[in-house]
DNA sequence: CGGGTGATAGAAAGCGCTTTCTCCACCGGG
DNA sequence: CCCGGTGGAGAAAGCGCTTTCTATCACCCG
């Protein structure tokens, strides 16, 4: 079967303890001894037994990555860069493995996976995506996160607001400036002359939905205090899938209230919005402007290319990896906010001259 | 700290062995005893220590999922459905965790991750994406896969050809009918009247590239034995990214050899192809038809919607999960080929009447 | 009516590693 | 010249679980 530590020790003529120390560092080992052990490891092709290490050390090389759904590019890109950054540059470093868990955004699934990861003695956990803001769940989540962090496993909240955990614990938050991005996007639409701006928001109760909507409204209100209220009937809550955007837009069109622009919760929803508009015979951006959020790869290939807000997913993934592995110290306050950037493309233009349609 | 098996045993007034048996099944436990144990587990909120189980049982609940890159929708969708299907319907079932590893298609990374997973005593491994067909690597991979399977961890090859391992081992292969799909796509182009068909192929040496190209050429040859050779100068090898399609198309245009259609290695590449053509002032499908492969979600939102070949990624993910967990018996021969389907959309049309351009 | 014969439960031996705790040599200072 | 220090190595005790191997009981059949 597999080579064990003891065999390596025997081969090198030292005790198992010494081999362990050479492999894990943090304890002085004389140069000659170290060399002999390393050679034995090499010759025997020794690969440590992960579970045994985890059992003895009470922590493993596993890093849990909770996402709403990896099939969604937003999470796929985040998880991908995170996974890549988990493998450090140095060659001998212990390689962390990413355990990705699709929660579908469901609180129960989130907690269930956290339990599973705790049982696996995961060496860290990254919670990504908007948080369900519901007192009961936030409380339960905070308790779980506190417990994990207290047991030494760093927790990184990525793309969601911080949790009220004791400051001394290894819990970091990496946020996106969703609010600012939504604000600038709305400003862009206003500057183009739009006033009747529809908004296809994400699921209610989700932090991301709240932030983006807040930024959007703030911009409207700053331009004209009456605008937020005026646009209220043009706001629809939906899911984060393409079909949600499609359905919401059909509903909007059915209602008949005129609008000249639609801002969507994210790019995927925006493609659904665009499809519904096109199907209704409306031209983009001639008749109606459309904007998304996230700047997923799809944005540049839609027709027309989608105006959106870039969210630095790759950067976030790398940062989260560095934080969860402890390679990067926690920032003071534990919170890092990554900037978002308005990406103006072809899907937004001034409203039609003849007045607002439909 | 965490509740242990022994504590549950004490609470239920039985021995640890009995608790273990209730939890794992496969050994008769009297109804009353079982109930008492289950109640104790419930009351104490017991969660098994994964590493300890894995150490004692020499196998874990971890399932390795090797992908080229999760950020790529192809793999994201595959990994997502696979991960979802790993969590069985029943509630008490042991939940398998998916460890996703980005190999970037690099043989060395593939082997390195396999070693890591072996060290973790993974309960199974799924290798996805085209295989690098290089004797040395195939040999090394076969050896590794054989060893893992022999130690009891099922291995599933998904979207790649089978490996020559002993038939008795738990190794299954789930393939896509890439060749057939490419064949039908080429037939479609030929039926539209195209004769000068460019092909932006994937990286050389990859099984997927080979299969798709083979199907494509087969259709050309069947239509006119001289066609494959005639189209040879219009075939370019590139990567699987959008930029590869873009660059390859620019190169094709630069060469000046006329073509009326371009078939791309996959949808992502096709979007790059389309972008380059559009940039060159060519209309799709008016001047040049474009076709992709995979039928990723992006296909329906490009302008025009992309004609492509649907590859049943979700189905494959679910099937792979069932096979790797042993929930579904290995098919005879160990190989399952999933059908692909031609999806005709707006990006393909008859070639321009005036003759082939550019 | 006694010893098979199942059906259950317990004892105990690890699984392969980490990590105290101990021990040993050898060093320099008093 | 002796002794406390100190760097380096080993012994051994687990970590929490699975899994033989054994030990009990009932029973049941000849």
- Topology-level CATH name of the domain at 178-310 in chain A: Rossmann fold
Which secondary-structure class do the elements of chain A indicate?
A: alpha/beta
Order of helices and strands of chain A: HHHHEHEHEHEEHEHHEHEHEEHEE
Q: What would you call the quaternary organization?
A: homodimer
Instruction: From the alpha carbons, calculate the radius of gyration of chain A and give it in angstroms.
Output: 25 Å
Largest interface: A-B, 54 and 54 residues
Q: CATH class of the domain at 178-310 in chain A, anyone?
A: Alpha Beta
Shape of chain A: elongated
Mean pLDDT rating of chain A:
94
Strand order of the largest sheet of chain A: 2-1-3-4-5-11
Task: Report on the biggest sheet of chain A.
Answer: 6 strands, parallel
Instruction: Give unreliable regions of chain A as ranges.
Output: none
Helix percentage of chain A: 40-55%
Could you tell me how far the N terminus lies from the C terminus of chain A, measured between alpha carbons in angstroms?
Answer: 72 Å
How much β-strand is present in the residues of chain A?
Answer: 5-15%
Strand tally of chain A is 12
CATH superfamily membership of the domain at 178-310 in chain A: Response regulator
SS element count, helices of chain A:
13
Query: What is the architecture of the domain at 178-310 in chain A at the second tier of CATH?
Result: 3-Layer(aba) Sandwich
Keywords (chains A, B): DNA-binding, Transcription, Transcription regulation
Domain HTH lacI-type (chains A, B): 3-57
GO molecular function (chains A, B): DNA-binding transcription factor activity; transcription cis-regulatory region binding
Organism (chains A, B): Streptomyces roseus
